[in-house]
Amino acid sequence: MASALKVNKDLVRERQKCTFDVKELTYIWEGGREFTEERQRYENIVYSVKELQDEVPELYLSHKERYESSIRKACILQRLQNEYGKKHKVLNTRTIRLVGYGAIRDISPFLLHNGMFIQTIEGQGTPEQQAEWMPKAQAMQIIGTYAQTELGHGTFLRGLETTATYDVKTEEFILNSPTLTSHKWWPGGLGTTVNHCIVAAQLYINGKKHGIHLFMVQIRDLETHMPLPGINVGEIGPKLGFQTANNGFLGFKNVRIPRKNMLMKNNQVLNDGTYVKGMNEKLTYGTMVLVRVSIVSDAANVIARAATIAVRYAAVRHQSQLKANEPEVQILDYLTQQHKLFIAIATSHAFSTTYGWLYKAYLQVVEDLGKGKQDHLPELHALSCCLKATCSRDSAAIVEQCRLACGGHGYMASSSLPIVYGLATASVTYEGEHTVLLLQTARYLMKAWQMALQGKVLAPSVSYLVDSLKSNKQSWQNTPEFIVKGFQHVAAGKIKDAFHAIQKHVKAGKDYEDAWNLASVQLIKASEAHSRAILCDVFWRGTIIKSSTASPGVAAVLDHLVQLYIVYWALETVGDLLLYSNITKEDIAVLKVKYEELLALIRPNAVGLVDAFDIRDEVLNSTLGSYDGRVYERLMEEAMKSPLNQEPVNQSFHKYLKPFMKRAKL
Ligand SMILES: CCCCCCCC/C=C\CCCC(=O)SCCNC(=O)CCNC(=O)[C@H](O)C(C)(C)COP(=O)(O)OP(=O)(O)OC[C@H]1O[C@@H](n2cnc3c(N)ncnc32)[C@H](O)[C@@H]1OP(=O)(O)O
Ligand SMILES: Cc1cc2nc3c(=O)[nH]c(=O)nc-3n(C[C@H](O)[C@H](O)[C@H](O)COP(=O)(O)OP(=O)(O)OC[C@H]3O[C@@H](n4cnc5c(N)ncnc54)[C@H](O)[C@@H]3O)c2cc1C
Fold first, then answer.
1. Listed range (9-23, 255-269, 458-472, 538-552) with the worst mean pLDDT
2. Of 361, 396, 528, 556, which has the most beta carbons under 10 Å away?
3. Is the distance from the beta carbon of residue 516 to the nearest atom of ligand 2 less than 6 Å?
């Protein structure tokens, strides 16, 4: 952190105003003091390594140079991480990724190795397969990715075209990409980094198709890194963001792999070609469930980064006058600015709390599956789908809102907000496209509604549907508990409407599938409303628990944030509440006042709240958001690093401009 002398005076004043213990909130936000201290220790090591510091900002490098730089840094990071893990504790994924961003400035080309390749071996491999591949993968003797999506299909997994045909004579699978559209397309690290892949392919035995299975395939020689025979591999080129993720394409031509390379924890192929079906074919999709759960945490982190930048900038930036003859005010004092930014802080806490809850549910399901119990799998799938969809979408919208809240300077690459937006918006699509995942949840909600009508017991996350069937709703109260109930009424109402819409189309003679498509706008709205009800409920209940052991100062700000989140969404969806709950116009007027009061309560703590995210300057990498608030100095310093500023006259003047000006006619 910068010394107090150099810190911008507005930020110094803001920090003096703060009414709570910032460190205590950091510990709560991060899940415990031990996690914060572990991260800080590791950050101190990583950010003191000279080789990880940039001489030229990454953004001025070419596509190729950026990739090479990211590999160089990722190797240093991986070594530091492994050494740290041996001496201290194994670091959690959040810390590894957060610190990685700070060094690489974008996505690590090892992201898929560390985030999906290892997890798939762990979750889908037999104990023998784990024993063979895990140590090599963890030590990075083999580097891999998760190669599922193809040029032609990403969403509809049953439509994937890559084939793995079992040859009973040699006890091998033969991999082929029969069409252009069957080429793998997108996997991170696939372009030029990895030598192994987990490949999703259609399994064929004796001409019979058994659906999607996962296979461990070596694609490059470990010594020369040359593609192995039959492998056509490369990089897919620049994208909106994720520039250093090294996303690639891959095609197979009669590539043979041994039988033992099919991941066989769930389904098996025996030597003689006998196919043994596992407990549930959807368990093949298990890694995706884990990553969808993790994306809720990613969404919290990405918002925290954007909020830190935008709130600190809004404290430093003065523009316009509220009253004539008075100094220009900090833009953070405009209520509209608070409206844009405080919801970002609150949302980050909402998602972080929800992630903790969802991850616990995930671990429980994994434990149950180990005992052969799969009762809660559909509920987990439904929750992870809609929460991934809603949190990633909200995170992209909020990051963009933060960027816009920084005016022109938010458009500067050096603010880091464009790159953070690139990260956030990618997550709306990857690991299951937004609408598609909402529709998966809607499938579950339709079944739940049917069960509620039949008086059956429902899973906890949808048990509110039973209440909503009771006709005598209590009169509205403007308390958080009651507003959460209101969101549940909205969700139940939309679920019911979507259900009836399908029924109406079916009664009119449509097939169920066509009726589903005709009702699908209503279905995604029902799914979104369900997500919001879950987010508000979990955030409210989770905050009560967190506050119970917190100091009064921290408990108070947590209460302000959770109330702000709930009231914000009540006002955003006021039309829905009017349609589906007992809220009145008078209640809404009271909520509007309450919302403004909450903004005023949060205002003195705004900078303290983003400081509590404890994101180091190296991670923020932002001219607008650093701890010391030297915004204008940094903007100018960064501009001076432009290669165009390294010479007084660029050669293009002599080559093009001057002759052009000479030839120009009046
Ligand atoms: C741990 C560290 C984390 C690090 C984070 C790393 C971040 C990495 C950053 C970027 C990486 C990005 C990687 C990728 O994008 S990998 C590719 C991801 N691809 C997808 O997500 C594809 C999306 N499509 C699907 O998941 C499915 O095809 C589908 C949309 C769900 C539809 O599948 P299908 O057609 O087979 O199924 P149905 O619709 O017919 O449904 C049949 C029943 O199955 C149930 N189902 C489906 N999926 C699951 C599942 N995963 N688990 C449990 N159950 C599932 C479904 O609900 C249906 O049930 P029902 O009872 O209604 O019949
Ligand atoms: C940055 C990034 C990294 C990625 N990394 C990987 C990786 O490492 N490994 C990997 O295997 N994949 C990866 N992917 C691929 C990613 O998982 C897919 O792009 C994603 O699942 C969406 O699939 P799609 O591209 O086929 O979209 P599409 O399904 O083609 O979506 C296009 C449109 O069609 C709509 N649509 C499609 N189906 C339906 C439906 N049934 N009902 C209603 N609407 C529908 C969608 O809503 C969307 O609006 C990555 C993608 C990105 C952007």
1. 458-472
2. 396
3. no
The answer on pLDDT for 202 being more than 50 is: yes
Candidate from 429, 437, 516 with most ligand 2 atoms within 8 A of CB, to mutate: 429
> Distance between CA atoms of 94 and 348, rounded to whole angstroms?
14
Measured over all CA atoms, what is the biggest interatomic distance in the chain, rounded to whole angstroms? 90
Reported in sequence order, the residue ranges of 23-128 that DSSP labels E, i.e. its strands, are: none
Token couple for 503 = 């029924």
Say if the ipTM goes beyond 0.90.
yes
Question: What are the phi and psi torsion angles at 181 (to 5°)?
Answer: -70, -10
According to DSSP, residue 117 is labeled I
pLDDT of residue 472: 66
Distance 433 CA to ligand 2 centre (A): 5
CA dist 190 and 112 (Å) reads 9
Residue reference for tokens 């520039």: 243
Q: What are phi and psi of 34, to 5 degrees?
A: -65, -35
Q: Which atom of ligand 2 is nearest to the CA of 188?
A: 8
User: What is the distance in A from the centroid of ligand 2 to the CA of 564?
Assistant: 33
Q: How far apart are the first and last CA of the chain?
A: 58
Q: Domains plus CATH for the chain?
A: 22-106 (no CATH), 120-278 (2.40.110.10), 287-457+480-610 (1.20.140.10)
Which residues are within 8 A (CB) of 231 and not within 5 positions of it... i.e. 6 or more apart? 219, 220, 250, 251, 252, 255
Would the CA dihedral through 378, 380, 383, 384 be positive or negative?
negative
- By percentage, how much of the chain surpasses pLDDT 90? 94
Report the chain's C-alpha Rg in angstroms.
Answer: 27
Active site residues: 431
pLDDT digits (tens, 9 = 90+) for 586-626: 999 999 999 999 999 999 999 999 999 999 999 999 999 99
Closest by alpha carbon to 194, among 245, 239, 241, 240? 245
Dihedral (Cα; 65, 66, 71, 77), 10-degree rounding: 130
SS3 164: strand
Q: How far is the CA of 289 from the centre of ligand 1 (A)?
A: 7
Please tell me the predicted confidence (pLDDT) of residue 56: 84
**Cα 154 to ligand 1 centroid, rounded to whole Å:** 10
Instruction: Report the residue among 298, 433, 514 best suited for mutation to probe ligand 2: largest number of ligand atoms under 8 A from its CB.
Output: 433
Tell me the ligand closest to 299's alpha carbon: 1
* Residue 10 structure tokens: 């507005």
Residues with CB under 6 A from ligand 1: 93, 111, 115, 119, 146, 148-149, 154-158, 188, 282, 285, 288-291, 294, 377-378, 381, 430-432, 436, 440, 443
Q: How far apart are CA 16 and CA 611, in angstroms?
A: 12
CA distance 535 to 465: 16
Instruction: With beta carbons less than 8 A apart as the criterion, state whether 319 and 631 touch.
Output: no
* 666 pLDDT higher than 80: no
Question: Reduced to 3 states, what is the DSSP secondary structure of residue 509?
Answer: coil
pLDDT of residue 2: 46
**471-522 residue pLDDT tens:** 666 789 999 999 999 999 999 999 999 999 999 999 999 999 999 999 999 9
